[in-house]
Structures are given as structure tokens and as C-alpha cells.
Amino acid sequence: MNAKKLEYFKKLLLAKKKELEDELGELEVKFNVSQQDSSSDLSSHPTHVADISGDAEDRESRSCLITSMVEELAQVNRAIKKIYSDSYGICEKCNSKISPKRLEAIPYAELCIKCGKNS
Question: How far apart are CA 21 and CA 18, in angstroms?
Fold first, then answer.
């Protein structure tokens, strides 16, 4: 891949990294505040089973979202490292080039379309 294209994808990846880090920061603050609120003030505990269940579901959803975003951020960071090691855009399974269209859609793609379908 030529230097101009690499620079383009590097900018995309850095923007995605910042976006994920910002969103994670906001979610973690909300998650921590929610946990503090639920553990510190007994008078605010809901007394109805449905309320308790709803609160637990909300925390579980946020926890799953945070986990997913952390995994995506790790993929973005690996892709950025690949740019610096001259291995960006190479399928990790078959070592062929990942199409620019795929990288445009998912700049941190680790597999080409063919290998991605087969995994």
C-alpha cells in the first residue's frame, strides 16, 4: 500500500481510537456513578422486584457495551501498530492483501473478506 493510502487509514484509525476512548470514558463514569448510587443510599433502592431487575439489566447492558468497545479499541490499536510495522492491510490468515473497500468500511479489519466469511 502506498504512503498516501497508509496515511489516510492512519488518520481514520486515530479518529476511531479517539471516538472510542471518549465514549468509553463517558460510559465508565456513568457506570461507576450508577454503581455508587446503588450501593451507597439504601433508601434509593427500589423495593419492587421489577425495578431491581431493570436496574441489574441496565448495568449488565452497559457492562457488555463497555467490553465490546474495549475489544474494538484493542483491534484499532493493533491496526495502528501494523501501519508502523508495514503489515497493515494484510490478512492475518492467508497473508493476502485486504481490499481497500473492506478497509474503508472497517479500517481495523484483520482478515480479508474470504477468510472473514470462513471463520
Answer: 5
Query: What cell was used for 65?
Result: 457495551
Q: What is the pLDDT of residues 68-97, one digit of tens each?
A: 999 999 999 999 999 999 999 999 999 999
In sign, the C-alpha dihedral spanning 12, 14, 15, 16 is positive
pTM of structure? 0.77
Q: How open is the CA angle 11-17-55, to the nearest 5 degrees?
A: 155
- State the SS3 of the chain: CCHHHHHHHHHHHHHHHHHHHHHHHHHHHHHHHHHHHHHHCHHHCCCCHHHHHHHHHHHHHHHHHHHHHHHHHHHHHHHHHHHHCCCCCECCCCCCECCHHHHHHCCCCCCCHHHHHHC
Q: How far apart are CA 37 and CA 39, in angstroms?
A: 6
